[in-house]
């Protein structure tokens, strides 16, 4: 066992021990705790949990590598995965919190109808599942490299651990373990980034100092047959950049496993601040990522350029075992570097390894390499656990309990939820072994679907009282079918042939159009069908105000339970399955 | 962005009962909501201008300008927009706090202690 492997094992075992300990300490028996931690999490902790939930293998493992190869166009991921929080904070979170239901399907179920609820639950399962596949692949890369086994074996191990861990605790365990996971992953991300920045520029703040190397990176890239790093629209056309960024933002705001987190605050105010803390914690990683991308690219190019194959740095050899780094046949000295086997470059480096390999590429000591591996696993696990929870709650709650056995006791529902989780893990392992694209891209597909299904239904449900069940159902189906069809049309996932992009729109960007289709269909169909009941309109009115009005003339403090003004939520809504 | 007119369409205006409560005033509700929407609109315009405007639509023109060592458009796309997003949410949370207090619809205490008016759910 090499030095690096020893340190990796130490860090992974230590961090996992901590998570499992916390999950075990707070394991839950009752259904309410299992799903939303009984509304009692401080906003800063909730923010950190949202951040951990949110920052997946795609953010941690894959993104900086993608940016390294995309250059300026990597900003689709940077802006796309952070800008959505503004939409979430301003358009959705406080209102959904005020409504006070557990999941997105529950909200639309109350706001529209049982049919819409079922559609939403189906969409939640498809979206979360796609997203889980990305996590499995990411976790697999970590284990594959550091245990020296092939990628498929790595994926199996990652899946087994993720499943065990999600079954152990519900949301409550997960909220506090996710705070721990955030700590691990951000430390693991920042330490090597700061070390590299310090070594290369003398300024230990990567966000500030990576500007210094950009000019050199531009010329170095040009020599090796790559585009200028800071040149915009070299990898994708402008229209596609716009659409992908929008799809990721809108998808962020519609992702069921993120939205459910905002129900864990006690107040509407708390949900606003949770969004703030979450984005602050996320921004810490997201502003570092472009620096990591630039520094790693620089070190990579400088280290291999014009080097003969026999004298390549050790990391090349180390990573070749995973099959994610390859050297072209009959190559003697490295003249070109690429990330795509089809490019025919002398050295092919898969995007997904760059972050994990960056400490090795920069020649940092073994403990740091191990720490980064633990961070990558934390990112993959925390997100996968949150997603599995959405899958299990959608299956047990929205399908099984609502549609099949209304009298199912808590125990039985938990069991059904866990079986659903297990099923999802098994299928995700199979899909993770044959992913249709890089980790970050697989994840981007999930966002496209979330953008085209949930976001419009939620926004219309909150801001437009006239929107009715028929409109929402038609809109969601139209948006989702449109988006998925285009993805199937342009990708070779389901054995269909890959067709050319229409009007330069990539499958990652189609969610934006899908969302527009959804909005349009929902509005037209709503207009053509009768408006929702007056009672419902009052419920929608009620979510606009965080609390009843207190300081009014003519009456003293209006107590929280006095009548007089419409109040949304469980008080007037159809009964939730929980209480 | 096709967002529907968020003003109160369809659905009869919520009726207020007077029993034991405040006198029937629609005004504060409309006013509160209008100010909420105005704040929202301002923040979303900035959100769009910084990310899609500076980071995508005009990135090439801005790249002509150098900001410290960064081309400005590139800096907006990879750094500046993210800082702006964080600030926007903070401004939203703080301004909404103020608005809630002004209209007396704030929840007593903060999230970490209070259990205001949500007792039924626990």
From TrEMBL, chain A:
GO terms for cellular component: plasma membrane. One of its GO terms (molecular function) is transmembrane transporter activity. GO terms for biological process: carboxylic acid transport. InterPro entries: Na/Glc_symporter_sf, Na/solute_symporter, Na/solute_symporter_CS, Na/solute_symporter_VC_2705, Sodium:Solute_Symporter. The chain crosses the membrane at residues 6-24, 44-70, 76-95, 115-137, 149-167, 179-197, 241-263, 275-295, 368-393, 414-432, 438-463, 470-489, 509-529. It comes from the Bacteria. Gene3D superfamilies: Sodium/glucose cotransporter. It is found in: Membrane. Its main location: membrane. Keywords: Cell membrane, Membrane, Transmembrane, Transmembrane helix, Transport. Residues 548-579 are annotated as: Disordered. Pfam families: SSF. Residues 554-564 have a biased composition (Polar residues). It is a multi-pass membrane protein. Belongs to the sodium:solute symporter (SSF) (TC 2.A.21) family. This is Cation acetate symporter. It comes from Phytoactinopolyspora halotolerans. The lineage of its organism: Bacteria, Bacillati, Actinomycetota, Actinomycetes, Jiangellales.
